[in-house]
Amino acid sequence: MTTNNGNMRFEIPLVSLVTLCSVSFACVPEDGGSEDGADEGESGGDAAADTDTDTDIDTETTSADTEGASESETDTEGESGTEGESESESEGESESESETDTEGESETGAFDPPEISCAESLLGQADLSFHLLQAECFGTTCTWDYDPAGAVMTQIAGEYDPLTGEFSWTVAYDPEHWRTSTTVSGTAVISEAGDESSSYSATTIDMLGAEILEDISLERSGCELVKTTTREGKDFVLDGSFTSTAFTYTEGQIPPLWTLGSFPVDAAGTRTSEGYEETFQYYLPFDEESDQEFVWNYSHSLTGDDDGYSEATFSQWNWVSSWSRNGTCSWSISGTQFCVVEANSEDWTADVQWTEDYSHNGEGIFSAWFYSSEMQDWVWQNCPITMVDGVCSYLCPLGQTNDCRYFLME
Question: Tens of pLDDT along 246-291?
């Protein structure tokens, strides 16, 4: 989304020079010229008169001509004064208009974006501050429209008003990505030192048409960032520092591979312009309410890039039952998950692999030892897995069937 604001031009109407002159001339007596014409007429008409009469006529004519000449000079002086006044007014109006135009251009022209502290080290996690580093400012608004690094996002376009602090932007994603769009709006204060304090909301639409709603509070002082994202009533805090080469952080997360996880725990990671690496430890202690010793431990090492690919190597176990699973899962840009897992308990071992898309449909193979009543022995079977709308089940060749809790650790 790009917004262009036009210049406001203030103009003072120019008074027509012709109008000014007409007003000035209206004040000059109109009988000077007509008296000359009358004298000429009288002189021509009395050519046969006597000398005294001629003398009288000549005397009158001379007097009249003298008066006419005097009035003509008055006219000339009046015209000269009017023209001077007109030129003065015209010059004054022209200067006033020029000054007004110049002031308007100064107030609505291009200007520099706000100074941003730690500008040389910021990455996309800085949100508004990072966007302003790509911005151009004109009128009263700073705007940006750019294609960030990597394949995930194809466009980030938005605007910021330094006077009100209001901002907004939209994100467009690669057509293969599980998200289709994100819309952000909020307010911010950029201090004189270039630090940021902001609060905003984000609405993301996924490929299924569902909305993901988030409220975000961000505080950045120099290269130190704290960003709290509230989603479905839970706060996920990103706390990190930017350096010239990387962003090191802790981030509240819920295990992506374990449905028993219900509250955020900090993962520790490092992000560069090319991707990220993080480690995660999640511990579920003794359940006092049910008086059961579900003492679980989960850990993973996660890597990812800006093209939408990520991979986690994980381990999970229960200290009481000696039930564990270990494996690797990866995610493509579309959100499709592919996992290879080994599940173990005191009396059972299984190998599992599955592919599940973003809409939680998929398939796989569950291979394990099953006891056959017919054969009176344990038989290794490869049992097809079916996932429909997030409901997983398997059916073995010898008829064994069940849900997938054993290897999904639900």
Answer: 999 999 998 777 666 778 889 999 999 889 999 998 876 655 555 5
Q: Which of 44, 43, 47 is nearest to 63 (CA)?
A: 43
Same domain, 94 and 200: no
State the Cα–Cα distance between residues 181 and 283, nearest whole angstrom: 34
Report which residue type is found at 186: G
What residues pair up with 79 in beta bridges, in sequence order? none
Same-domain check for residues 75 and 164: no
- Cβ(36)–Cβ(7) below 8 Å: no
Q: Are residues 31 and 158 in the same domain?
A: no
Same domain membership, residue 96 and residue 122: no
- Examine the pLDDT at 371 and tell me if it is beyond 60: yes
Q: Are residues 200 and 97 in the same domain?
A: no
- Domain of residue 162, residue span: 109-244
Q: Which two tokens stand for residue 129?
A: 């501050």
pTM assigned to the model: 0.70
Sign of CA dihedral 144, 203, 194, 111: positive
